[in-house]
Amino acid sequence: MAQDKSIVTIYDLKNGGTPLITHAIDAKEFLSHPSGRWSTSPDILNTENSAPLETKEDSGETTQLKLMSLRVLQAMADKAGIPDYKKLNKADLVAALEAK
To answer: Domain ranges in the chain?
Structure first.
């Protein structure tokens, strides 16, 4: 029995280019299937039908806020004048501080 511990990613072309992480031996079987459903590259997809990936600009401020404790976020919310900041959980405080 062959033993191949390589892990590869193949893409399901009939499911919007969804990636599948699999062993190399299994990937060979998928790729040799006559349906042509699988590919080694998502670039083969028809880009006219694909929606562009939209990413939000990240300044790093969100990450810094998420790393802070609840008490620090509450103090910042108090200084920023966010109403009812004591009732908000950490995620809501981060979102409110980002909006300010």
So the answer is: 7-44, 61-99
